[in-house]
Design brief:
Blueprint lengths: L2 H19 L19 E6 L7 H16 L4 E6 L7 H10 L4 E3 L2 H4 L12 E16 L14 E4 L3 H9 L3 E4 L5 H6 L5 E5 H6 L8 E17 H6 L2 H35 L4 E4 L2 H23 L1 H18 L3
Parallel strand pairs: 1-2, 1-3, 5-6, 5-7, 8-9
Antiparallel strand pairs: 3-8, 4-7, 4-8
Helix pairs in contact: 1-9, 2-9, 5-10, 10-11
Length: 324
């Protein structure tokens, strides 16, 4: 068994251990053993991906966990496939108190200033899995920086993402995720970048020929809650909901890890996509060009000292995990 699978299994075991700590001595739930009253609560969670997406599967596990550990007093409704709107729209609904929770990619979430989210009415709950982002195209496979030149490539609505691809020579074009398929089909853009699971989840293989494994950005999906709603829950329920969110996070990561190879096989054998893995040397060359441009842009927003500290922290973490 590979180290990465062992690590994920251990993470799930830790989640279950934490959940077990919430049990009372008589085997009842934590919420059941506290004065929480008879009021019931409903949490609607919006997500733009389908029912079978790793993050959504995690949310369904959260639903089971929370409902069973609150004796049904806290009900969760997972609203998948964009039922309640796109990512930007549902985040705004949560911030305004019109929706309890939503899952979204980092790009729309960062507009709420991560270190000041609570001042904007949001509470971060967990990071659902999206995975490493890859490039698909109808122009050609990406094997080197030269292959990006002039390519009209859809990016997330995020200045840092756009800057990185601009530095690589592409023509970055921000398009909302909900409009991505039609933009590709109408050739508004020729290429896009997304985690592997999204290529199959949104049927991008129908409008894209090449899939290049660039691994250029890791992308988690924050799960956020309306702060006022969360604080209105009895404390015992708050603990259950928070534990359920972490359980959902780890479950989604496990699902994504185990499914990626199967998805790649389907994309190649069943849907005819041409898949190539970008060499380590080519990725290093891309990073050498793109990272300085992005760092310079970020420094303008938060200051060079903050950037330097962040980069130091990243190096420290990488040094720690390299030991495993």
């Amino acid at each position: 068994m590979s180290k990465r699978i062992i690590a994920l299994l251990l993470a799930l075991v830790m989640v279950f251990a934490l959940c077990a700590c919430g049990k009372g001595g008589d085997g009842g739930t934590t919420a059941g053993n506290n004065d929480v009253g008879d009021e019931t609560y409903t949490i609607r969670i919006a997500c733009e991906n389908s029912d079978s997406y790793p993050a959504t599967l995690g949310l369904y596990q959260m639903e089971k966990y929370v409902e069973s550990h609150t004796n049904g007093k806290v009900q969760i409704e997972v609203c998948a496939s964009g039922q309640l709107g796109g990512e930007e729209e549902t985040l705004e609904q949560v911030a305004q108190g019109n929706l309890e929770m939503a899952v979204a990619s980092f790009a729309p979430v960062v507009s709420y200033v991560p270190d000041k989210m609570e001042a904007q009415g949001l509470k971060g709950m967990a990071y659902m899995e999206n995975g490493m982002r890859q490039v698909t195209s109808n122009v050609s496979a990406i094997n080197s920086i030269a292959d990006f030149k002039g390519v009209k490539l859809r990016t997330m609505q995020n200045n840092n993402h756009m800057e990185s691809f601009s530095a690589l020579g592409a023509n970055p074009t921000p398009v909302a995720f909900s409009e991505l398929y039609i933009s590709l089909s109408q050739k508004v853009v020729d290429a896009q970048e997304n985690p592997i699971a999204n290529v199959t989840d949104k049927k991008l293989y129908e409008v894209q020929k090449y899939l290049s494994l660039t691994n250029h950005i890791y992308d988690a999906m924050p799960l956020v809650c309306n702060l006022e709603f969360f604080n209105s829950l009895p404390q015992a329920y708050q603990k259950v909901v928070q534990a359920g969110a972490i359980y959902a996070q780890e479950f989604s990561r496990f699902c994504n890890l185990e499914r990626e190879d199967l998805i790649l096989a389907d994309l190649a054998d069943k849907y005819g996509m041409q898949i190539n893995e970008v060499s380590a040397d080519a990725r290093a060359e891309m990073a050498k060009v793109a990272q300085p441009a992005v760092i310079k842009l970020v420094a303008k927003d938060i200051g060079q000292d903050a950037v330097d500290q962040y980069m130091k922290d990243v190096k420290d973490v990488l040094a720690q995990i390299s030991k495993f």
